[in-house]
Amino acid sequence: MSGTNQFQPFAIGSGANALTPAAYAALSTLISQGFQSGIANSAQVNTVLRQASFMAAALGQVIANAGLNANDDGTLSNMVAALQTVLVQKTQVVGAARNLRMSLTSASASATFTADEIVVESALGGAAYQLSGFSKVLNIGGTGAGGMDTGSAPVSGYVAVYAIYNPSTGATSIIGVNATSAIAPEIYGGSSMPSGYTASALISVWRTNSSGQFVVGSQVDRLIAFPDLQAFTMDQLSVSSSISGSASISGIVPKNAYSIFGSMKWSSLGGYTSFGYSFTGVNKVEIEGYASYWSVPYSDLILASPQALTYGAGVGSSTFNFSLFIDGYRF
Hints:
There is one protein chain. The protein has about 325 residues and is of the alpha+beta class. It is about 15% helix and about 40% strand. A 6-stranded antiparallel sheet has the order 2-8-9-16-11-14, with no helix packed on it. It has a 4-stranded antiparallel sheet with strand order 10-15-12-13, with no helix packed on it. Strands 1-3-4 form a 3-stranded antiparallel sheet. About 30% of the residues are buried.
């Protein structure tokens, strides 16, 4: 939604009593010294007013296009603040954050999210605001600002976390949204935003346990890490055989996750043997060799589809087991 622009360009109509740009540029003495005592030439005065008002109107319209108001009320601080907001909007993206952190050493319904700075917006491409010194506690056992937007926290699901802002009062807060069954948008998209809060940004998507609590883990910016969880295992793959298929990891990472990291493990039930296996998203992580046990870390396996990947494995002279463990994700 556009704001208002009270600044109007002067003398821009057809046939206006004003100089052409070339004629005005040729008046070097007037431009450098200004008007002197006496009767000023009306066309020259109109040109000076036109140039100043034209740029003021243009800046006012840029502010209005960002959903803010450019008011001719003599309040310079409001105009400076509006221009600063527009500059942030044009140079930052929603959700951009510096030193965003959250950490839990035990499962809890409450978690503190901190950041040196977070950029929130009223809409994608809309008015943007920088929230500095952000530190808010989210209690997903409650509702409203500082809790879930509506209803209870999901059980064994995911909670999307939004930083929210009230431009009228300057108040900041935080809110949780059930993100178990759908990708959470970058700006709050529900209908239960607390009154007055019109700007927001997605800052986390966190897993919950069977009690509807945040699980143990740590977050730095858009990376979330936790104690490794076995996402997939294949036991006793027969001698001289191979296998392939797809696996769901919906119980470990949210739909917003675009990449995962962790480790791949392999063990032989009959001593040294040749082997190879891989997991594939957009890219592929794989290991192959001749051993009785192997564990290899992987990073940034990009998911081609939310919460899913494909696998393939083959073994030589001994039956073997192989597994994929996930230690965290990026969203």
